[in-house]
From TrEMBL:
Residues 254-401 form the Flagellar M-ring C-terminal domain. PANTHER family: FLAGELLAR M-RING PROTEIN. Residues 46-221 form the Flagellar M-ring N-terminal domain. Coiled coil: none annotated. Its main location: other. It is found in: Bacterial flagellum basal body; Cell membrane. Belongs to the FliF family. It is a multi-pass membrane protein. This is Flagellar M-ring protein. It comes from Paramaledivibacter caminithermalis (strain DSM 15212 / CIP 107654 / DViRD3) (Clostridium caminithermale). InterPro entries: AMP-bd_C_sf, Flag_M-ring_C, FlgMring_FliF, FliF_N_dom, YscJ/FliF. The keyword Mitochondrion does not apply.
Length: 517
């Protein structure tokens, strides 16, 4: 056996030595290529095939799932920025069952799950249920992206109206349950935004069939929303805002004429929230001044026949033996002519789509009461009334439906009420009076203290000079001084009064003098 192997090796060496250099290179390259191909084939065959486990995950949930896969010693790959997770195909079912026990994924079926799990045995009803479940989960994930919302659950009821046997069409409905972060609360505008989001995502779902609830069960869109996105509360607030603004403007305007305490106004504004869309199609000539357009095509047909016969004999053949006879006329001088002309014109076509703005002012009614005391002779004449109505209609700036004017004697209580209403406009100024008063008093105290200090120092200097000159003369002068304690203009009276009112400040001044000495 060993001799046979040695013999084969020798033959191969002799054969290889007999080859040229070029042949040896080709054999080496071919052998290397064959080895690499074989190795790559084995690697590809033995390489595990990865399939998608879950898709569309949040980063937080993706991290929790990968942690569980590591605990189960299952290899995985994170794709699409961590929102998708893939595992080897042979470990797919094991991973899903173990993760389902742990409650993953929390959002249930995704769009990928709904479409990838379709089989030939699945009915249309099963496919519809999976599609609806995927849509609910997608809406919940979208709502959770809103700031302040920790968790969202969406429930959809979409009836199947494809049954031609039933004429009744059932409406779709939706409920949304929200869990907020600590201390967070949605505004009315944000709640209406969620309602619009759900309504636009589900075909045939009207906004008044959507309910939004918090985790306590309280309904957040209780006022209801119409097709234009306005709740009843929002409509009322808008109407009140326009009414109060117009009342304030008209009252301020008329107060310049009659006085603020002699006029009272009440305004009723009706807003139009109906949505109206108008489509207008207009045609016009492209040539200015012409009634017809440019000629696009024209067809003209003329036909003329001279001394010809037209048609056959009238009537039908007779069934009897006798032959029906008809009178004939001489057609030697007959003439027939026919003319047809068809012209197609090119016109300009203008299409307009006009959408009326919702919430516009529909009509306004104004009621005005004037104090008779401000009127000439205490009477409201028809001419004065007509001018006032015209003035108010123009001041409103819109089409005023009705203006009523009345003149009455204002009682004291009515004028007091008007004064109270007008005083509210000056509340902000009156609230600042205490602050201003405190500042002025503090400034006066400081100025008075400075003046007192200057006077006391000046008096001290005068006393010192008198002591230096002569003690005897000083004693005589002291005896001759007659101090009138009741003289309010004297220095002593002012100092005593200042000491009584500001003893702390005087003590501080004395401490300052002692420190200076």
């Amino acid at each position: 056996m060993g001799d046979s192997i040695t013999k084969i090796q020798n033959q191969l060496n002799e054969y290889f030595q007999s080859l040229s250099k070029k042949q040896k290179i080709l054999i080496g390259v071919g052998s290397l290529f064959l080895v690499l191909t074989l190795a790559l084939s084995i690697l590809y065959i033995t390489k595990p095939k990865y399939v998608t486990l879950y898709n569309g995950l949040s980063l937080d949930e993706s991290g929790k799932i990968t942690q569980k896969l590591e605990e189960m010693n299952i290899q995985y790959r994170a794709e699409n920025g961590g929102t998708s997770i893939s595992v080897p195909k042979e470990n797919l079912n094991k991973a899903r069952m173990n993760l389902a026990i742990e409650g993953f994924p929390s959002k249930g079926i995704t769009w990928e799950d709904a479409f990838n799990s379709n089989t030939l045995t699945m009915t249309n009803d099963d496919k519809r249920k999976k599609y609806l479940q995927a849509k609910m989960n997608q809406l919940a994930r979208t709502i959770e992206e809103i700031n302040g919302i920790e968790k969202a659950h969406v429930l959809l009821t979409v009836p199947d109206n494809s049954d031609f046997l039933t004429e009744e069409i059932k409406q779709s409905k939706a409920s949304v349950l929200l869990t907020f972060k600590h201390g967070f609360k949605l505004s009315e505008q944000e709640v209406n935004g969620i309602v619009m989001l759900v309504a636009n995502a589900v075909e045939g779902l009207e906004m008044n069939n959507i309910s939004i609830h918090d985790n306590t069960g309280r309904m957040l869109n209780e006022g209801g929303i119409d097709d234009d996105g306005y709740s009843l509360d929002k409509k009322f607030d808008m109407q009140q805002e326009v009414t109060k603004g117009l009342e304030k403007s008209l009252k301020k305007f008329l107060a310049k004429i009659y006085g603020n305490d002699n006029v009272d106004i009440m305004v009723n504004v009706n807003l139009d929230f109906d949505r109206e869309i108008t489509d207008i199609k207009e045609y016009s000539s492209p040539v200015e001044g012409e009634t017809s357009g440019l000629i696009r095509s024209m067809q003209e047909l003329k036909e003329e026949v001279v001394n010809g016969t037209e048609g056959g004999p009238p009537g039908t053949d007779s069934n009897s033996d006798s032959i029906t006879e008809y009178k004939e006329i001489d057609s030697n001088n007959s003439k027939f002519s026919k003319e047809n002309k068809s012209v197609n014109y090119e016109l300009n076509e203008i299409r307009r789509n006009i959408v009326k703005e919702t919430g516009s002012v529909k009509n306004i009614t104004v009621a005005i009461i004037l104090n008779k005391k401000t009127l000439e002779n205490g009477e409201l004449t028809d001419e004065h009334k007509a001018r006032l109505i015209k003035l108010v209609s123009a001041a409103a700036g819109l089409e005023t439906k009705m203006v009523e004017v009345m003149a009455r004697d204002f009682t004291d209580s009515q004028q007091d009420n008007l004064l109270a209403i007008s005083s509210e406009e000056n509340t902000s100024i009156l609230n600042n009076i205490p602050v201003i008063s405190i500042g002025v008093i503090a400034l006066l105290v400081i100025i008075g203290s400075i003046i007192a200090v200057v006077r006391i120092r000046r008096r001290k200097n005068e006393v010192s000079e008198m002591l230096d000159n002569s003690a005897d003369d000083f004693d005589e002068d002291i005896e001759e001084i007659d101090i009138d304690l009741n003289d309010k203009s004297s220095y002593k009276y002012q100092i005593d009064k200042f000491v009584d009112k500001k003893p702390e400040l005087v003590a501080q001044l004395l401490r300052t003098w002692l420190n200076e000495d």
